[in-house]
Amino acid sequence: MTNILISGGSVAGATLAYWLRTYGLNPTVVERAPSLREGGYKIDIRGAALDVIDRMELKDEVRRHSTDMQIARFVDAKGKQVGTMSAQLFGGREGDDVEIMRGDLAQLLYAATKDDVEYIFDESITALRETPEGVQVTFESGHQRMFDLVVGADGLHSNVRALTFGEESQFLHHLGHYISIFTVPNHLHLDRTEMMHPAAGRSVGMYSTRQSTDAKALFLFSSPPLTYDRRDVAQQKKLLAEIFADQGWDVPRLLDAMGNAPDFYLDSISQVRMDQWSSGRVALVGDAAYGPSPASGQGTSLALVGAYVLAGSLATAGSDHAAAFAAYEREMRHFVEENQKLAASNLKGMVLKSAAQIRFQMLMLRLMPHLPGKNRMIERVTEPIRKAATAIKIKDYRAPIA
Q1: What residue range is the signal peptide (predicted)?
Q2: What top-level class would CATH report for the domain 3-65+102-172+271-344?
Q3: pTM for the full predicted model
Q4: Is the pLDDT of residue 293 over 70?
């Protein structure tokens, strides 16, 4: 039985573990966090990724946990409503597309794997050494174990990628923006509603999903690469407060609540671009290999599909891991490229450059319900996302290895 270590226990890691176990392989998941990460932000599952969820028999559970968002409201600096949009159109969703909180999806995937997959929490990899027998892994605790293969499913700032391929600066491409998300009290009493306050070069939002007693604050801003300590949360909070210090609406109140946020997150909106996703007995999947950035709206879908394809490729290739990794890349490369293309165009609508652009966007929102051909206009918004989300045909890898 092939023993495979997966670094990262979130969407890509847990999905990969599920399918590897299905095909008779033996996955172990190591996760840096002391327990499963809860919370997070809204994510979308579309197209081919829905097919993967369906094959895992999780589609009904995913839909039961959908955010059920209803409307997006745009307000000016004084809180006056200047435009509205359906939540489906705001998120670029149509048909069977579903939106779910990242933490809820992670919980569902963990529940589907925890009984027959070994999870090691509060641990991380510090060294990888390939031998004729496999990969000798050294953990932060000092323990060492041998595995046949290692897969990095550990996100944008992948530890496995750094150990295997080198500094992340070679692979991270900054898209000129930053994002911050954290939990705040629902002082606006929002119910399945997203509030957005756009300003030139900056955008602030707040939303609360179905069955949620709190809310999420969302900050987006354009900026060249910033220098800060990625592990110093206090420094990052100060940075965000300075950047948005003069913004109106409820921004001061959200920034005050930031101090008590248990899940503060700030990072650049960047893509991972690599010529290859494997080296020897080590491979990457999900954001670690081809993170398309939050601006694409497709990071979760790429993680789900990529994990499925990687597991299937390993199952059908038997002991030839090199052939499996090559097949995985061939199958996924076009799909990845099509979804990464979405980010640049999406960012143009997420963070507007000038007050004039904001006024025009709000005018179009008010006029859209009354314009002839409005349905075609809506289709033009969702069409690129639909094409990218379905730019791969999901194969059937059901025949497990001997």
Answers
A1: none
A2: alpha beta
A3: 0.94
A4: yes
